[in-house]
Write a structure and sequence with these properties.
Layout lengths: L1 H22 L2 H4 L4 E4 L5 E5 L4 E2 L7 E6 L5 E8 L17 H10 L6 E10 L2 E9 L3 E10 L2 E10 L3 H14 L1 E2 L1
Length: about 180
């Protein structure tokens, strides 16, 4: 009996956690997102319904959406210098974590910790991601060089609420498409 009870508990726990992992995407699958187009670049992305367009401050900020919880979705678009190929994004691999931290801190951010970074393909576009925090906010940044532009997408939320926002973050990131 002992082994049977142990086995049943194991099956129940396994079933519970596998459902959480398998169905976490269902949370956002049932929500109608709005597809928006970039103004400075030829791209689209999906925005959750409870986000609203906010005035962009800065010459290169293309789109800025926020919600009432303080989360934000910001895209920055810059033209690539003439002669710089799209595959030059691979140079990010040569930058150290400390160089990234120094760069972020020189722009005014403090106490930066790089959580993870590397390459990912999003809708057939080679992309570079950097996930970092300052202890208060979580920043989920994606860099793409496509069609002559450098697109920087950043989804920011409170670090303590990161797990709640991850389904939204991944849905928005995976919706990013260049025309």
């Amino acid at each position: 009996w002992y082994y049977l009870i142990f086995y049943m508990k194991f099956i129940l726990i396994f079933f519970y956690f596998s459902n959480i992992i398998l169905f976490q995407g269902c949370v956002t699958a049932q929500i109608k997102f709005q597809t928006v187009s970039g103004n400075k670049g030829n791209y689209t992305l999906d925005i959750p319904p409870n986000y609203y367009l906010k005035e962009s401050i800065g010459a290169n900020i293309d789109l800025k959406f926020v919600n009432s919880d303080g989360a934000s979705i910001i895209t920055v678009v810059k033209k690539l210098p003439v002669g710089l190929a799209e595959n030059f994004i691979n140079a990010f691999n040569e930058v150290s974590d400390q160089q990234l931290v120094d760069q972020y801190e020189s722009s005014g951010l403090e106490n930066i910790s790089i959580l993870k970074r590397g390459f990912i393909t999003i809708n057939n576009v080679n992309s570079y991601f950097i996930y970092y925090t300052d202890g208060v906010l979580y920043h989920h940044s994606i860099f793409q060089w496509k069609n002559g532009i450098n697109l920087n997408f950043t989804y920011t939320c409170e670090y303590k609420n990161k797990a709640l926002f991850m389904p939204y973050i991944f849905r928005v990131v995976n919706s990013l498409k260049h025309k």
